[in-house]
Amino acid sequence: MERIFGRPIVTQEEMRARIRELGKQITADYTGKDLVLVGVLKGAYAFYADLARAIRVPLRVDFLMVTSYGSRTKTSGKVKMVTELTEEIKGKDVLLVEDIVDSGLTVQYLLKTLGKKKPRSIKVCTLLSKPERRTIDVTIDYEGFRIPNKYVVGYGLDYQQEYRNLPYLAVLDVAEDQE
Ligand code: 5GP
Questions:
Q1: Measured on CA atoms in the order 152, 94, 119, 63, is the torsion positive or negative?
Q2: Atom 4 (ligand 1) nearest CA
Q3: Is 129 touching ligand 1 by the criterion CB < 6 Å?
């Protein structure tokens, strides 16, 4: 199978600058609140670590893991939570941290599932968004970058569990018929 990287669609510098801005915005919005930052693993891990350090209000960290795509580039249309939160979120202000919002299915599922635990508020922060692919109308409160309908890897995002450590975001062209 051939794997070809185009040029970075988001560079490390662009990423750094945008995360600084998001951090400022979140800091202003969550001053005096009771913030729990919930990272959606695995994809959000790199963004999460940088974002958390750009936020200047007290917060608690927590994570959950979901599977939605299996190991291929096409969605299976199913979302499953494979780990639970360890922090109590009842009465707290939850900010979900996602790598990318594509169809909107994952975010919709998580808002519904976590909403049952009665947080005071629940909002969504995503590094990337592919508006063209949206099939479910979900509200995104903080968005890093809008990207076209291309499969991207790097900065936490994978293709078959690889490329997560690429320090920038790149389009992965995969010759599907050669898999
Ligand atoms: P959604 O539920 O919004 O359709 O999909 C969200 C999940 O799909 C993301 O958390 C991510 O795991 C995966 N995903 C969607 N688009 C891409 C992409 O371009 N690259 C990678 N690596 N994962 C993607």
A1: positive
A2: 103
A3: no
The pTM assigned to this predicted structure is 0.91
76 has a pLDDT exceeding 80: no
Mutate to test the pocket of ligand 1, among 68, 158, 159 (most ligand atoms within 8 A of CB): 68
122 near 114, Cβ under 8 Å?
A: yes
Q: Identify the CA nearest to 151 among candidates 168, 134, 174.
A: 174
Domains and CATH numbers, the chain: 3-174 (3.40.50.2020)
pLDDT digits (tens, 9 = 90+) for 101-111: 999 999 999 99
What is the edge-to-edge ordering of all strands in the sheet holding 152-153?
3-10, 169-174, 152-153
Positions marked active-site: 102
